[in-house]
Amino acid sequence: MKRYLVMVLASIGVLFVATPTWAHHSFAAEYDSSQVLTLTGKITKVEWTNPHIYIHIDVEEGGKVTSWALEGYPPNTLKRTGFTRNLLKEGDTVTITAYRAKDATNTGAGREVTFPDGSKKFAGPLGN
Hints:
Distance between the termini: 52 Å
CATH architecture: Beta Barrel
CATH superfamily: Nucleic acid-binding proteins
């Protein structure tokens, strides 16, 4: 009986530990696919981490600088498509097409990055 109780408690413990790995946000819950942004700015930081990368850029408009954080695909997905971390260099000016966050913060889901040489790579999903 004691062994059975230990097994049940261990199973419940595993469920509690594994629960956060089941959670994942939905695109539609966070981003508005009808609000497409085209932002040109300098890369200030790149977070090449799981579960998603973040590209931080400073966008200057009318003498005012606004910082943006744009979420992209997971690093593994990007690497398989030829988008490597060394393509994103701090200080480079890039243009990023993105979908604005629903919470009206300066965040978005990055879609396509245009690099200084004019080449383009997809960084995230097509909004739907």
